[in-house]
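Sample entry follows:

:::
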Amino acid sequence: LLFLSETGGKDRRSGLILTIPLCLEQTSMDELSVTLDYLLSIPSEKCKARGFTVIVDGRKSQWNVVKTVVLMLQNVVPAEVSLVCVVKPDEFWDKKVTHFCFWKEKDRLGFEVILVSANKLTRYIEPCQLTEDFGGTLTYDHMDWLNKRLVFEKFTKESTSLLDELALINNGSDKGTQQERERSIDLNFLPSVDPETVLQTGHELLSELQQRRFNGSEGGVSWSPMDDELLAQPQVMKLLDSLREQYTRYQEVCRQRSKRTQLEEIQQKVMQVVNWLEGPGSEQLRTQWGIGDSIRASQALQQKHEEIESQHSEWFAVYVELNQQIAALLNAGDEEDLVELKALQQQLSDVCYRQASQLEFRQNLLQAALEFHSVAQDLSQQLDGLLGMLCVDVAPADGASIQQTLKLLEEKLKSVDSGLQGLREKGQSLLDQISNQASWAYGKDVTIENKENVDHIQGVMEDMQLRKQRCEDMVDVRRLKMLQMVQLFKCEEDAAQAVEWLSELLDALLKTHIRLGDDAQETKVLLEKHRKFVDVAQSTYDYGRQLLQATVVLCQSLRCTSRSSGDTLPRLNRVWKQFTVTSEERVHRLETAVAFHSTAEKILQECPEQPEAFNEMEQFDEIEAVGKSLLDRLTVPIVYPDGSEQYFGSPSDMASAAEHIREKMKLVSLKKQQLRQPEATSPES
């Protein structure tokens, strides 16, 4: 039965030839019947109308089997069979019996049955329509035909099943409601076989059919015109056309489904982002309202905020990806999806931008708080440094160091003023930002939290203002004290300078004020100059005394002991006493010199004829006494109260002055002698 087939040959009526080869083995009539049904189902109705010629090859079988097969044809295909040719073996059965049986059954069978040997089969069928088994020239490879037929049957079965599945899927996608459509697609979305594979199989089968090479022979023998009907080339083409149509629809359904799935996934991800940002993300921001009360606290809050930002960054990355996907769908999407996509994109953007703005606002607020606390800490350190400087007692060495300290104090106070101004600016900026915090509070009342922050900021600024005011008051006191100390040092310096000046005047008096004059007039001029010189010294002394009195007052005000008044005042008094003693000695010498020169000049200018001159001889004795006294003073040192001695000028200077006095005393003595000579000669005459 394996080789029971339609060879493609045709009888003289153009009917198909059906060959039934029988063998020695037991033949199953049921299988034969099924096979005949299958083979008879292959030709078209038009082909069947022309009838079949059946060749029963009984050369290797028994007559009873042949007879049974012939009778079975009556039951299976009585209308289609027009002629049955039973090929008898060389040693044939009883001719009488066989011929009689088929002849009697002709009317009942409905077709003619003839017994013929293989070499005489060409009487009924052309040799070109018979295979080599029956002496013909028709090329036929049953195994090749069977393999191709199996391919065809598989393709037909798979394509028919696939068409049903695709039709179910495609028709399900056309249902009215979205819910029904999605449910239908979900249940029948994947076909049982790959459409691409089935289409490829069909195209390969059709290609072979069109090339008429089912037999696979090397020579490419052409088939008879009936092979289109036998191999159902039109059926393959029809199936392929239907498959392409349904597959195209199926691809569109898949595309729509993929787009819908992608849209649903995007929508799901969008809602995940939105729900997290409006839920846990917003809750994280709502719980973070403080600004800290120090740099460390603000830095800790910043670190916490960075952790929150890190969590948000993951969702913002999802937002960027979703936004790109939505943008791609908008560029290639259908009109019906544009509104939904734009709505999703707008919702996602609004939430993300709002949350990003809140994060940025919080970051700016914490940064402003950190800057505020940093400025406050710097200002506090400046105030501490200024206060420490003010709390240390001032013990400068001189006025220059006091001026330097005062300059440093003023610079620190100026720096504090600048720091406080910067703190006010930072604080006001921070307060302005806090006042805007309610705009993103999601309805939460942040008045209490903001009040704590505002109170803290204002408290810090007020505390710094009070500390700065206290430091300013202390600076004012310190400034006054330091100015008094500067004045004290100035008075001490000026008093010391007065002592130096007075010492210089004393030195000048001793070394340069040594001349006694050549006559009375010159001596009087020197005496007048000396009095003026003494007035200058007196002014210097008084100036020094006033300065020293001022140092006493300043020391009492500063509650300190003057370091120089105990030294300068004794020096001033000592120098002044030395100057006074020296000045008095100088005055006494000049006055003595005036008296000496005046008397001497008077005697030397009187005429000898004047009688009164002889009555005043005692003047000569007086002038001699004055001259000797003056000469004696020139040789005597000045003795100061402390017992020290000092001479006017150098010994040569004193010798020169003494010599001038002696010369004038000689002149006076000579004059005295001249006056005495006339008196001696007068009695003799």
